[in-house]
Design brief:
About 80% of the residues lie in helices and about 0% in strands. The chain has eight helices and no strands. Helix 3 packs parallel to helix 7 and helix 5 packs antiparallel against helix 6.
Length: about 220
């Protein structure tokens, strides 16, 4: 099907889906934490645009509230909190040397292709929006897991965890035309609580070992008295 024959909503959703997938892929190769947080904030902004577009096109007004919550939490508050932790620990100049960076990027590209390969037989009778929304959502979830595996810093693990939630949120907005308002508020509250808990967790680690490198955390052991 020629993309020019599609309506504006479909073209916009497909473009946003491609950009959301691209941001997850870009996160894998980021060695600087501030750049990683910036790309994560951009992904949150793309989710905000997707939610607002769905609210306007589907005449679903409660999605505007979801768009505002996404903007406040995933574009402003959580990136600000993570950036603050990085600056306080003076980690903004550090460059994380990723192990097998080429293999990680190739693995990320393979996961994106795998997502389309797995879902195409399932939703081949559905619309092109449904196929791309679910495939991008699955790829974002898988890339978030790969991000957590390939990076050593705990902040990168938090970004990967939040990216997984972004993938699920994208599928819920596009594929189901928006979740019920109660569910959306519950998800937003869970994300807020998780962000606060991560902040407390980072504070305790910083006061204990002055590092957020998970390799150092793995070496910790209980001292016998």
């Amino acid at each position: 099907m020629n993309i020019e024959q599609l309506d504006f909503y479909t073209q916009a959703i497909l473009s946003l889906a491609a950009l959301v997938g691209l941001t997850s892929f870009l996160m894998l190769g980021q060695g600087r934490l501030l750049r990683l947080i910036f790309v994560f904030a951009m992904q949150g902004f793309l989710l905000t645009l997707t939610t607002a577009l769905a609210a306007y096109s589907l005449n679903n007004h409660h999605l505007y509230i979801s768009a505002v919550l996404t903007l406040v939490l995933k574009v402003i508050f959580i990136p600000w909190m993570l950036r603050r932790q990085v600056l306080q620990m003076n980690m903004h100049r550090d460059i994380e040397a990723l192990k097998n960076n080429t293999a990680v990027m190739l693995g990320g590209a393979s996961l994106m292709v795998f997502s389309y390969y797995v879902l195409h037989p399932i939703v081949q009778s559905s619309s092109v929006v449904m196929l791309n929304a679910l495939a991008v959502s699955l790829s974002v979830v898988l890339l978030g897991m790969l991000l957590m595996i390939s990076h050593r810093q705990a902040i990168a693990h938090v970004v990967g965890f939040m990216s997984i939630e972004n993938g699920l949120f994208f599928a819920a907005i596009v594929a189901t035309n928006g979740m019920p308002m109660v569910v959306e508020l519950g998800v937003a509250f869970d994300v807020l609580v998780a962000a606060v808990l991560f902040g407390i967790f980072f504070l305790h680690i910083r006061t204990s070992i002055d590092s957020l490198d998970v390799d150092l955390l793995n070496k910790l052991h209980e001292v016998e008295k």
